[in-house]
Each structure stands twice: as C-alpha cells, then as structure tokens.
Amino acid sequence: MTTASKITLARVVFIPLFMLLMYLSDFGTNLVLRYTSLAVFIIASITDYVDGHIARKYNQVSDFGKFLDPLADKLLTIAAMVIFCEWGIFPAWALMIVLTREFAVTGLRLVAVGKGKVIAAGWSGKVKTASTMVGLCVMIVFPQVEITNWIVVGVTVVTTVYSGIEYFIQNWNCLWDDEA
Question: CB under 8 Å to 87, separation ≥6 — which residues?
Fold first, then answer.
C-alpha cells in the first residue's frame, strides 16, 4: 500500500472520531469538544490535498487510491452534513441533493469504467469539495448563526449541482452504447 493510500485511509479513520466528538459536544454547546472536532475535520480535510500531492509527486497513483480518495471525501463531508441535519441547521432537501449528485456521478464513473474509460475529477468537482469543506468548518465554528448556515447550504447546493451537471455534459457519451 502506498503512502498516499495510507493517508487516505487515515482520513476515513478520522470520520467516526469527528462524528463522536460532534455528538459529544452536545449540539455544539461544549466548546472544547466542538473545537476538537473542528481540528479533526480540518486535519482530515487537509489529508485530501496531501494524499493527492504525494500520489502525483512520487508516482503513487493507484486504482485503490482512485477509488478510496473520492469516497473518503464524500464520507467526511456527508458525515458533517448528517450531523448538521440532525441538529436542524442543514436541511434534508439539501443533503438529498448532495447525495443524489454523488450517487449519479459514481454511477456515471462505473459505467465509464465498464467501457474502459476513466473519468478524472474535474475542476468544478474540486471546487465543490474544497468550498464544501471550508463551509462545513464555518458551520462547526458558528452553528447558531442562521445566515451563515444558509450561505454555506447555498454554496454547497450550487457547487454540487453545477459540478454534477458538468460531469454529465462532459461524459454524456459514456451512457450510450456504441453499437446503437
């Protein structure tokens, strides 16, 4: 297993720790636990950059890494959204939009792989991931500030929808049989 993949696995391990700390923070009222969970979330988010950088710089790109890296990103961000949804500060409809996009893009990638094609992460997908991670950090710091939460939800939904549409427009041909 490559160093990059080990770092990605560490991100996956951080997810239950982050969730536990958030739950124990008693809806964010315990500041020590809330800020500890923020630190865990930030470290986990930074590993997204670090593992990719190491994989490219040291030629450690692997099929396992290509599979696990985007999955780890999705699990981390969705874990935070689920907690915020439970706390009543992230609407379920927005979470459903995020989940729908993730399942749709994953399905598109699976179809492409079946045809021998690889769909690399697009720029808009990277912007979506980065802006979502930053926004979720803001929500961890200011969970009671309603306008901030709505801005984060808005940015998350807009970047999610935009990047999902872009993936499908750029890779539409993967959905159709070549024989037809």
Answer: 27, 28, 143
